[in-house]
Give the backbone structure.
Amino acid sequence: PEEIIVDGSTGRLHEHGDLDGLAASVLAMLRTPEVRAELGEAARTRIAETYGLDALAERIARGWLETAGRG
């Protein structure tokens, strides 16, 4: 999904049905382990920052403050 994967940064996105583009991206990643590692690390960081415990706690706290009229 676009909200998780940032094309070119945390992965590769293709239009539905773009099998040639998908195949090209898979082959490119198979051939370049350093690109694969960079995408993987960027994806792990994005997931941790967006969906990790700290991010969840911040969203909960913000919700409580908004509910209490302080946000």
